[in-house]
Amino acid sequence: MTQKFSLLALAATLALPAAAQQDPKAGKILDAVSAKYTALKSFQAGFTQTLENPAAKLKQNINGEVTVSGQKYHLKANGQEVLNDGKNTWTYLKNENEVNVSESDPNNQDMSPTQMYSMYKKGYKYTYVKSLKDAGVASDLIELSPDSKTNDVFKVQLIVGTADKAIHSVKTFKKNGTRTTFTLKNFKPNVPVAASTFAFDKAQYPGVKVVDLR
């Protein structure tokens, strides 16, 4: 079975009831980060996903890129593509030459890269940890913890630029010892995108098997 790209499961494990008391300093920064990305018509970025589990002697890096416009997105990573046009989601697996099609659920938080800058709004307590230098850039480290103790993720750390409020990385900590870090790079705001960017065209994939789950 092909390993599914972990970013798509990042927010799924974190969609929980609303949090109560919060750290005002962290909240102010997170609100500014959310406002920055929400105001963009579109953006494109490269990323590296680092998956680690010291006990299992596991360390894996996956590089990819993402294009986002509103709630629409197109992810490419590790021989997989995930496209969402706001109505449908296509998950294409290159090795199998197969695409799974499902309805896009706006309430399903596991299927949108936008959760990286909006997930804090529901289901978390957040705390300002410290200022630091990240790749030589003045940055802030903010820590989120889910309200639910049954969640297998017990902590999320975000590093954002102090001046521009750009997301540098998002790191999740699981109870089984797995650590997953998404590091963003080559960020390009307001890139021109066509509607076809977010819809799967099977004509471009000769012989593709279509599994319709709608």
The biggest sheet, with number of strands, parallel, antiparallel or mixed sense and barrel status, is: 12 strands, mixed
Main-sheet strand order equals 7-8-9-10-11-1-2-3-4-5-6-12
Count of domains = 1
CATH class descriptor name: Mainly Beta
Strand-residue fraction?
A: over 45%
Assembly annotation: single chain
- From the spread of the alpha carbons, the general shape counts as globular
Evaluate the radius of gyration.
17 Å
Q: What is the ordering of alpha helices and beta strands?
A: HHEEEEEEEEEEEE
Structural class: mainly beta
CATH architecture: Clam
Using the coordinates shown, work out and report the CATH topology.
outer membrane lipoprotein receptor (LolB), chain A
Main features:
Outer membrane lipoprotein carrier protein LolA; 12 strands; 9% helix; mainly beta; outer membrane lipoprotein receptor (LolB), chain A; 2 helices; lipoprotein; 12-stranded mixed β-sheet; 214 residues; 46% strand; LolA/LolB/LppX; signal
Please describe what this structure looks like.
The chain is 9% helix and 46% strand. It has one domain (7-212): outer membrane lipoprotein receptor (LolB), chain A (Clam). The two termini are 22 Å apart. The chain is built from two helices and twelve strands; from the N terminus they run ααββββββββββββ. The protein has helices at residues 7-10, 24-38; strands at residues 43-53, 58-69, 72-77, 80-84, 88-93, 98-103, 124-134, 137-146, 153-161, 167-174, 179-189, 209-212. It has a twelve-stranded mixed beta sheet, covered by helices on one side. It has 214 residues and is mainly beta.
